[in-house]
Each structure stands twice: as C-alpha cells, then as structure tokens.
Specification:
This protein folds into three domains: 27-183, Cathepsin B, Chain A; 205-279, SH3 Domains (SH3 type barrels, Roll), CATH 2.30.30; 294-362, SH3 type barrels (Roll). Helices cover 16% and strands 28% of the residues. It has nine helices and 22 strands. The strands form six sheets. The chain has a six-stranded antiparallel beta sheet with strand order 3-8-4-5-6-7. β10 and β11 form a beta hairpin.
Length: 363
Amino acid sequence: MTFATSLLWQNDETWANATLGFGPQTIKDWGCLATSLTMVVNGCGYNETPATVNQKMAGINAFFGAAINAYRIGEAFPAVSLKELVDCETIPAPIARIDAELEASKPVLVRVDWNAAPGLQDHWVVIYGKDAQGYMMLDPWKYAGDAPEKVLHLTERYTFSGSTPAEAITSVIFFTVSGKADAAPTPAAAATPVQKPALVEQKAVPSDALTVNPTTDGVAFRGAPSVSGPLLERFPLNTTLTSLEARTATLAKIGIQGQWLNVQSPKGVQGYVAAWYVSSDEKPAKSAPPAAEFVVKVIEANLAFRSQPVISDQTLIARLPVGTALTVIDPDASQKLGVYGQWLKVKDASGKEGYTAAWFVSK
C-alpha cells in the first residue's frame, strides 16, 4: 500500500512569490519543507495549499524567520503530528523503519542533497511508497518534464550524498496520524495578516561578545536551531563567528551535544551552529552550585526520553505519555524550560536519568 496525497510544487506560480513565514525568503526559495508538510496533511484529510499552510503556521508563530518549525505541525493540523526527526548526516538512514512506516501507509519526509556543489544543499521530499525501482517520492520542486502522473524515484534524482537510500537520505521525519481530518481549505486571501515576532529581528551584538570557531571543516550554518533548519552556508575550519548570546550562556553551550548557538557570520548574517562543533579560547568560569530539583510534567504525547540530547534511534530509552512526572536535575533548567531546541536533564520515577525536549514539558 502507499500513502495517497496530491503533488504540490513550491515553485508553482500561484504561491511561489509569497513570503515564507516571516521572511525574507519566499515559498519558492525555501518552501520545500512547508510544501512537503502540506502534502502530508492533505493525505490525512485536509485540503490545503502551501500558501494556506504557510499562513496557519505563521499564525501560531511556528517559524524562525522563513524556517518552518515542523515540530508544531500538529498544533495547526491535529490529525497529524511530528513523531520524530532523525538526523542521518553521519549515520546510515533508518531504512527498515522507513519501510515499516510505508508498509503502514504512513508518509515519511526525507532530507536530501539536491546539488553536486561541496557541502549539503538541503531539500525535503515526501516518500509515499516503494516499488521495484526503489522509494517513490513526491518532489516539491518542479523540474522540466515533471507532471502529477509521473512516478519519481528518490535515487534516480538525488544521489549527491550517496548512491543508496541509506546514504542519500540525510534526515528523516516520522509522523503520528490520528484518523482523518474533516477540514475545508482556508483561502489564502482570507487569512489574517500576522505580525513579525520579535524573535526573528536582527540581534545586536553584545558589547562583550565572545567569538567561537568551528572545530571541524564544513560546519552547517542554519536559519533555525535544528538539523531541519534551512542551510545558509558551511564554514571552513577556524572561521571566526561572533556569539549573539550572553557570554556565560555561550560558554555553557560550547562542546555540548544537542545545544545550538546563535551566532553572526563574518558577512554579518545571523543564524545557528551546532555548539558541539565549535570552541573558544576562553574557558568557562567555575560552575555554580546545582539548582534545586523540581518536577515537570510531559505535555506532548509519546515524548522521547533519551540517554543523550541527540535525536537518534540509538538514544531512545522510552516514550512517555502526557502527564508523566519527571524530576529535573539540570543546573540550567530555568533558562531552558519551554525553550525550543533546548534539552533538559531529568530522571523518571525509577531514578533513571536521561534527557527530554525542554519545549514539551512544563511545571
């Protein structure tokens, strides 16, 4: 069986030039993930376009500039929610798990490299089935000769990261589908304009800004603090980057897996780098005494409880139901709680220690 939905293109002139999220990029520029999410929700009973999904997600502030926060798709479209994002840039893609989802007629989004240029040029597509030629995909970018009735296969088009699906796929998004929606489309013209939130404004460089340097060649510079954030550039080893975060916060994040650092490039562009791939000549001050423990509760169904602050099959300890109580043992908890992209160190009722997404728990 296959997941049934209709093909949509981000470069369709109907919405191609619409501002994506809070901009400045357009749906045509950066809209592959938003368009792929549109195809997913339509296959779950909705009737949307990239323009209406764009407006509904912007309406709940689910963008970092023009970078869509796919984790929040279920808030706008309750029949479908993001279950897990697996980063496969340095490990083989979870092919057996992808196959199992397709066998259950569930959609899978995968990130690929769309260009032969050095580094990774991000592009998201929908995988909806598998046949003798491989994974069948719906590509949100229309190339010459593409048509709704034309069957496209992943590795016939995208093999810049490797010739096999396990190599070509650099990230995977899995979904939880809860029945079929009964939702009419929202005309693009009828949406209420959304004001650009303060979080996407250009930040002032702190007067005591700390500089950091990549510790490996080709570190990704992204438009959002996530591996799904649009790739802006890749930095060579030892590029000087200016942190836009407080000095103490910067030092606390450097070298820590799962942490993202807001930085400014030598060209003056602002974005995010993985804090575990940068270093600084300055050493952190002596740690303050650990904060008092307190209890939080899970507010997202099937929340992942992990051995490390890394999204991977290998780090998953268990999935927790809504309402599960967790004791926070993280000294920086007060700054992390409720913040997207942050991880909290916690322990469960049995005393097992691990990590969970700070934006899916509350006091």
